[in-house]
Amino acid sequence: MRLTDLVRRNMLQNMKQYYLYFFSLIFSIMLYFIFSTLQYDDVISTGIQESDSMSSAFYTGVIFLAVIILVFVLYAKALFYKRRGREIGLYQLIGLSKGQVSRMLIIENFLLLAGAAAAGTVLGLIFARLFLLLFVKVLQVDAEVTLQFSTEALLQTGVLFLLILVLTTIQIVFIIRKHTLTELFRSKEEGEGIRKVRPVTQAVLAILGLLLTGFGYWLSGNMLNQFLFINMLVVLFTVIFGTFLLFSVTISWLLGRIRNRADGHLSFKNALSIAPVIHRMKSNAKLLTLITTLSAVTLTLVTVAYSLYYSSAEEARQMYPHDFLFTEDGWEEAAEFVGRLDNEGVEYSAVSIDTVAADVSLSNFNQGFGFEMEEWEWYLRIAPESQLQSAGVDVEVAEGEGVFFGTFGPDMDVSMATAAVGDTEIAIAEGRNFYALNIDTNNGLIAVDEETFQSIDLKRETYTAVNIADNDARERANEVYHSLYPLEDGSTGLLTFADQMRSALEMTGMFIFIAGFLGVVFLAATGSILYFKQMTEVEDEKGSYRTLRQLGFTVEEMLGGISRKQLLFFTLPLAIGLLHSYFAVQSVSFLFRTSIVVPVAICLIVYSLIYAFFYLLSLVNTRQEIKSVLGK
Amino acid sequence: MAEKQESGQPLLVAKDIRKVFGSRKRTNEVLKGLDLTVEPGEFVGVMGASGAGKTTFLNVLATIDRPTSGTITIDGKDIVKMKDKALSKFRRSSLGFIFQDYNLLDTLTAKENILLPLSLGNPSKKEAEETYSQLVRTLSIEDVGGHYPHELSGGQKQRVSAARALIHKPKILFADEPTGALDSKSAAMLLGKMEELNLRQKVTIMMVTHDPLASSYCSRVLFLRDGRLYTELYRGERTRQEFFSDILNVQGVLGGEVHASH
Q1: How far is B207 from chain A (nearest CA, A)?
Q2: Domain count, chain B
Q3: What is the pLDDT, as a whole number, of residue B257?
Q4: Is residue B17 one of the residues assigned to a domain?
Q5: What is the pLDDT of residue A130?
Q6: Pairing, β B43-47 against β B220-225
Q7: Final residue in a domain of this structure, among A493, A518, A552
Q8: Are strands B12-21 and B28-38 parallel, antiparallel or unpaired?
Q9: What is the mean pLDDT of residues B24-49?
Q10: Chain A residue closest in CA terms to B117
Q11: Quick one: CA dihedral B189, B193, B195, B199, positive or negative?
Q12: Would residue B60 count as lying in a domain?
């Protein structure tokens, strides 16, 4: 039998273990190719306002993808070779040299990779158009979708392919050279020995893990002060190290307590779940920590991206409460604009708002950034409540009091705050984290009652707010507006609500698009690694299943225990990852003006569903494996 | 000559057991019509050259494998006709096994391994604990309960395995070359313990072995040759040493004939 025959037979035989890896690889390469195509695509660079940041965002996405793919491939391969240790040892035993064995594995690896790369690229070509359509849809822009074949994208994919090939080839040579024959035969049991730790040390470390993680969570919610940067580092360190302790000690410790309480009388399910989980936790700790931490980061990114996208309309409204706003200097344009709207037959409401601008001295005004200034001056606008109301701002003030609009930062505390303009004192009754007049016309605004406003003796500046109820009409009006104020660099014109909306959708849409797909690739990669790990464990435990069968346990009874074990294995990193990202999102929640419960919930559910899919896949295959071992 | 400890029903009755392996074209008949009756309290050894069908015979009797034809009843129950699920249950409640390579679960401590057969039912913990402590005392493994298999010697592992096989008080204990992987001292200890269990607690044992010394602990030894019962020896009132030399004699004849037949 020639070497190539051996390779062929081997591949066919191992295909059963490989197919998920193969599909994950095809899927990742497809996405990589599509991202590369979008990075170089003309439609995107011409059709979109923020096209510069767009292609650099895709470029970042491409690099992230490449890193995820490389790590995934190398890790999965390492698992496979460990699993095939016996087979590799056998080849050497029957007289193949290390060189020949390496060559055989290299050929096999090359064929698999080339197959995946070719399939991924072809699928990428087919689906790129679909992705572009989806992308344009997410960004809500009108662009004609014509996609050209991109040579650059093909080259970029080729580079990734070569990189994977070179690294995996080095990996093979390294593994074969490093391992001795006896090690190859032993590789299955490697690294899973049970070392006994002194119970006291274990308990201390276990509790330390909980404390570190808990402290990190607590600090993440209280880090907005002058030590912000140090705080962030501390949170990062405590949470990651805490997670590692959770996996390497705490979980085994907690499960160990349940086990010790049984004093040998373990229920069958626990004997097949708790015991092996404790047994393997130590060797799995690094992997699980890595997966949990990365899941938390990915999940946080995706959640933040989705929340930003989800709330972009509302946020645009909070920055641009009026569809169109003209300042005192722009009254002529305002008149012309309104005239044009009349001609076009667009229904609108135009309201004049009197304002004054002044350096207002503020006392006890806490902006919520964690440090307090007793008194400082701020250039703000003041406007009467009634006019703001008629322009559609929901505001009501008592006599001598004021409502502050602006900042867009964390929650502020104005309970003791007062503002003074000349002789007029205003007690700030409420501070709102959004604007009453479009953001590019003021730093902030205090709405006061009519009488107070009249008592301020400063030059009046009259703003004109134009609002349009109908969405389509507003879009048309926006075009009219930009025929007066062209949307170009150096233009002195003010932006409109529709402009803000468009650019927010483009930015957050791109963010969600890239973060979303990276998240999916990442999930597919980590999910399949957890799956491979479980299948490796099933392989290792085949002997135990045979024994159990001889002792009179049925396959279904065994599966009951094994499914509990696998559930633990999939749920632990997911649950801890979800908890991490919950606190991470919580700590940056001031970024969002609006409720993000819905987008966060959707992200978490999707994430859990994908893991559930891998869990089910693992169960189905485990059942099959066990049945085949037991000859049924 | 038969040494019946109890009159009444035999524990195990096998009639005309045949086992054929392979597909239609190339068949290999390993068992060619074996009959066996085991009374409660017997310690039966099964000997024979490799390929004589000893392990196949044991597996068939122990419900691990099914015979091609023939009937087997254990404790009055026809195990050939039993459905798979019922068979599993029967195995778990009425049979005990010791294997050559121990077959302990690496992830469980010795005590957890021993109590494993009770883990699905819901026996009283107190009762289980009593049986456990009595068994580990008999088998001299009181101190290893909290240890994992990889921390134990071969002899200890095999005694743990024996304790696991007996924890649920099976009707009959099957042992397949239990001393095969042990040094002679550990083997002697294990066999001594098995003999003790057999004599004092009336545990019925059926053991496959190729070692004449091991079978000298038995009360009866069957010799298989080429899938058939060649002969059987009862120990009776003889000393173990006398029985041992008898076994060696039969094996000499059997071995010679086996060689001659090739």
Answers
A1: 16
A2: 1
A3: 45
A4: yes
A5: 83
A6: parallel
A7: A493
A8: antiparallel
A9: 89
A10: A551
A11: positive
A12: yes
pLDDT score for A593: 66
Residue A365 lies in a domain: yes
Contact list in B for residue A279 (CB cut-off 8 A) is 106-107
What's the CATH code of the domain at B252? 3.40.50.300
Task: Out of A347-361, A614-628, B3-17, B42-56, pick the least confident.
Answer: B3-17
State both tokens at A397.
């003030």
ipTM: 0.85
Task: Dump pLDDT digits (tens) for B136-149.
Answer: 998 889 999 889 89
In a domain, A64, yes or no: yes
Q: How far is A553 from chain B (nearest CA, A)?
A: 6
Task: Kindly determine whether residue A268 and residue B125, on different chains, have CB atoms separated by under 8 Å.
Answer: no
Q: How far apart are CA A209 and CA A376, in angstroms?
A: 45
Closest chain A residue to B92, measured at CA? A552
**Most A CBs within 10 Å: which of B82, B111, B120, as the mutation test of the A interface?**
B120
Distances in Å between the Cα of B34 and the Cα atoms of A102, A504, B52, B54, B57 are 52, 86, 12, 11, 9
H/E/C letters for each residue in A259-320? HHHHCCCCCHHHHHHHHHHHHHHHHHHHHHHHHHHHHHHHHHHHHHHHHHHHCHHHHHHHHC
Contact B115 A264 (CB under 8 A): yes
Sheet of B69-74, strand order: B28-38, B12-21, B69-74, B77-78
In chain B, % of residues over pLDDT 90: 40
Which of A438, A319, A324 is CA-nearest to residue A381?
A: A438
Structural domain contains residue B3: no
Instruction: Please say which residue of A452, A468, A493 terminates a domain.
Output: A493
Cβ-nearest to A551 among B84, B116, B125:
B116
CA A186-A10-A549 angle, to 5 degrees, is 55
The beta-carbon neighbor of A547 closest among B95, B105, B119 is B105
DSSP string, A59-80: HHHHHHHHHHHHHHHHHHHHHH
Using an 8 Å CB-CB cutoff, list chain A residues near B99.
547, 550
A554: closest chain B residue by CA: B88
**A434 within 8 A of A394, measured Cβ to Cβ:** no
Question: Beta strand pairing status for A375-384 and A349-363?
Answer: antiparallel
To the nearest whole Å, the CA of B151 is away from the closest chain A CA by 10
The pLDDT score that the predictor gives to residue A217 is 92
Tell whether the model's pLDDT for residue A60 goes beyond 50: yes
Nearest CA in chain A to B146: A264
On whether residue A49 sits in a domain, the answer given is yes
Give the tens place of pLDDT for each residue, A296-318.
888 888 888 888 888 888 888 88
Residue in chain B lying closest to A632 (CA): B84
Q: Which of A143-152, A239-248, B141-150, B193-202 is predicted with the least confidence, judged by mean pLDDT?
A: A143-152
Residue to mutate among B108, B143, B166, B173, with most A CBs inside 10 A, is B108
Across chain A, what does the average pLDDT equal? Answer: 84
In a domain, A367, yes or no: yes
> Domain residues for A413?
321-493
Nearest CA in chain A to B90: A552
Yes or no, beta carbons of A275 and B108 under 8 Å apart: yes
Residue B2 lies in a domain: no
**Chain A residue nearest residue B109, CA to CA:** A264
Separation between Cα atoms, residue A550 and residue A630, nearest integer Å: 10
Among A550, A555, A627, the strongest candidate for a mutation testing the B interface, having the largest count of B CBs within 10 A, is A550
Comparing CB atoms, the residue among A268, A279, A543 nearest residue B119 is A268
- Domain residues for the domain of B197 are 12-261
Interface test with A, best of B65, B90, B102, B107 (most A CBs within 10 A): B107
Count of domains forming chain A: 2
Q: Which residues of A touch B (CB under 8 A)?
A: 193-194, 263-268, 271, 275-276, 278-279, 543-544, 546-554, 557
